Amino acid sequence: MPPPEPTASPAIEVYSLEDRRFPPPASFKADALVTGNELHEEAERDYQGFWARQAADLLTWRSEWHTICEWELPYAKWFVGGTLNAAENCLDRHLAEGRGDKIAFHWEGEPGDTRTITYAELHAEVCRFANVLKSLGVTKGDRVAIYLPMIPELPVAMLACARLGAPHSVVFGGFSSESLSDRINDADAKVLVTADGGWRRGTAVALKASADAALAATPGVEHVVVVRRTGEDVTMAEGRDQWYHDLMAEAPPDCPAEAMDAEDLLYLLYTSGTTAKPKGIMHTTGGYLTQVAFTHKFVFDLHAHTDVYWCAADIGWVTGHSYIVYGPLVNGATSVLYEGSPDHPGRDRWWDIVERYKVTILYTAPTAIRTFMKWGTAEPAAHDLSSLRVLGSVGEPINPEAWMWYREHIGGGQTPVVDTWWQTETGAIMISPLPGATTTKPGSATFPLPGITAEVVDETGRPVARGGGYLTLTQPWPSMLRGIYGDPQRYHDTYWSRFEGRYLAGDGARVDDEGYFWLLGRVDDVMNVSGHRVSTAEVESALVDHASVAESAVVGAKDDVTGQAIVAFVICKGDQEPTPELGQELRMHVGAKIGPTARPKTVIFTDDLPKTRSGKIMRRLLRDVAEGRDLGDTTTLADASVVEEIRRRAAEVPEED
Ligand code: PRX
Q1: Does 396 sit in the ligand 1 pocket, CB within 6 Å?
Q2: Whose C-alpha in 56, 89, 224, 273 is 20 to 30 A from the C-alpha of 547?
Q3: What is the pTM of this model?
Q4: Ligand 1 within 6 A of 322 CB?
Q5: Is the CB of 431 under 6 A from ligand 1?
């Protein structure tokens, strides 16, 4: 792995000016689950014992573990010897305790159709679908790929897999067919669950057509189950494709849950790294469920009997896995699940949802908050948002301005805001305030949670007590990734090789004089667009795949709305004229190959790229150009005139929408 580049210093200067503080309001404290330091103190005395208590308190086990944690760096096992089933923890035990009639999901489709799903109903549908999967030959250990919009069948399919002990691999519905086939093949999935389509901004987005294109390149898939959502015409391959509703109509209702080892694989989720090939992050059962349940309960101060919780992420990302499906369901919460976009039919769709369902806890991303800021305060002000009592943020650094806007205009100027730092790899929230206990500062994720130890280190791996550096984690945590599917060497190289004995998160961070953590963004070649990780290498290889492109370099440049925007520097092949039309075509090409999130905002044509003498592209300089800054250190640049030429070209390019 190349050494990470230094973090941008302007962010540090801005943050250090921040001296606003928000202690939890007395009215919030009065009813909060945690108001003091007790959990942190307990975990400091014995962090493994602390997690064992959570595992016992929050989950139902089939059999006890004999060892809390086995730590053979870089591999951890938690609750060794214990057995349990994730679906049973999410469903059956609530039924057993008389809560079958409680609402699990208030689902709302984008066109306005709704479904209210109780725990008993969800349980019934999951059992039936588990039987469907069984009838298709799925058994414990088989991988199942899921490519669905945000409809109830998505959590149903995940939980049905968990019930059988078949790891699921959910692929975000916005990904292209090529991304889907890569992921299906890497996981060697034998069944795919998809839909005819989903609704997005009033139009039906075809999913089955995209799945069909993927399936042409996935010989291992034996069966495809198709949910009818939009009613569009689809092609059904004889003998391979079957309708969900047809299969469900014939499936028996009872399906016992498999007893799974705490360390059995619960799911794979692919995430971008510094090469074009995405990493299949592995999450197992006991430790993962313990930490997602703990964090969902305490970070959001969940009062399961009264709260209406809404995580507005897509289930296709880890946020949705942990905080729409597993955490809330283990905790018996009532959640909102919304299919579509925030501006359909109007820009007040979210606030209308909050008002109608009386949402009390809202969890979203800075990119959404900044979009709402751009749209103005009239929309939220026109709705009664007084039910909200906790606001969460995740996915990228939240700038203090957006944090303040969120608190003020969505939270009525008094709702605690919890900025939660974590990653696909960490599985659950790692650094965050506890809303009834922590005094927050706008833009800071504050402190590592109880049972978590994070340290910022310098280039040499020495801890930095105060100041900036690389964020590392120094002790195993229950929901940590157990590796990269099929690639142990990459697991070792990516996370454990830079600093001995430390997990490298790949993020820059600063610790202030009071020990607060301020996250500063990625330090490696991974961009963060609207809270989604996109690797520069993946976009570059999509660009070079176009017949007119000889070479390309891609960087993430600061963007007011999406956090970072993708700027592509492109060298055309000999006879190809660089035209604005070609720029547009390349953007579409990347969108089609990887998905709309990865589409460059700007394409800048150039004759050359700045490289070191060893031929490595100097992205730092390109970032300077893309963000319009003076050039940083150019001493290792092979030909200094290249950047000036690129800068001249960049000034001529209009930004795309
Ligand atoms: O750079 C950090 C940023 O998102 C990355 C993880 O992305 P992903 O695996 O897709 O998971 C996103 C949802 C957990 C991190 O390495 N990130 C996430 N949360 C924050 C954040 N950056 C700053 N502050 C946060 N609260």
Answers
A1: yes
A2: 273
A3: 0.90
A4: no
A5: no
